[in-house]
């Protein structure tokens, strides 16, 4: 590979090499779709709880003990959900960044075939490996989100007991 990628390859092989990162783009797209839906759900849940909290604050003058407990519970849940939203946001950013890196990888492969003397082997490998690393980071954020989501539900169930 030291001679440059363009030497000795057929057009079909070149297209196959360019499309190889597309598999990763597709995989990241699926991860991004699921994570974006989760992000939207978490944000909507925060909005609903925050609206309930505002309504309870308006009734706070009545000094109802159950409402005070519910206000405390809502505040804790919103705090936990905000943390969870941050984790999901980070996963979305990672998956989007990985897609960009895989696109850069494909472009570099294409340029290496079109422009003779364009030595990009190291750049291609670095872009692809960075993309994989960013996907892995996104998966870590998703795992932390799953753990946080369970903790929120557990807290909510325990608060109602």
Q: What features would you describe in this structure?
A:
Helix content is 86%, strand content 0%. It is mainly alpha-helical and 161 residues long. It has one domain. The model has no long low-confidence stretch (mean pLDDT 85). It has helices spanning 11-58, 65-114, 121-160. It is built from 3 helices and no strands. The longest helix has 50 residues, at 65-114.
Keywords, please?
161 residues, mainly alpha, 86% helix, single chain
Structural class, please? Answer: mainly alpha
**Helix residue percentage:** over 70%
The average pLDDT score comes to: 85
Largest sheet: none
Number of distinct beta strands: 0
String of helices and strands = HHH
Poorly predicted ranges? none
Number of helices: 3
Q: What is the rounded Rg?
A: 24 Å
Number of domains: 1
Termini separation (Å)?
Answer: 65 Å
As a percent range, the share of strand residues is under 5%
CA-based shape: rod-shaped
What topology does this entry show?
Blueprint: H1 11-58, H2 65-114, H3 121-160
Question: What's this, in brief?
Answer:
The protein has helices at about 10-60, 65-115, 120-160.
């Amino acid at each position: 590979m030291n001679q440059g990628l363009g030497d000795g390859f057929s057009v079909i092989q070149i297209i196959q090499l360019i499309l190889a990162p597309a598999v990763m783009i597709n995989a990241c797209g699926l991860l991004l779709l699921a994570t974006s839906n989760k992000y939207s759900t978490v944000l909507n849940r925060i909005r609903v709880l925050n609206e309930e909290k505002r309504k309870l604050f308006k009734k706070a003058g009545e000094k109802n003990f159950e409402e005070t407990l519910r206000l405390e519970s809502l505040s804790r849940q919103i705090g936990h959900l905000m943390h969870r939203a941050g984790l999901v946001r980070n996963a979305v950013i990672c998956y989007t960044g990985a897609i960009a890196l895989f696109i850069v990888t494909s472009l570099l492969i294409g340029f290496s075939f079109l422009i003779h003397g364009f030595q990009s082997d190291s750049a291609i490998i670095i872009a692809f490996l960075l993309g994989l690393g960013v996907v892995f980071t996104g998966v870590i954020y998703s795992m932390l989100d799953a753990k946080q989501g369970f903790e929120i539900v557990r807290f909510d169930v325990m608060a109602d007991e």
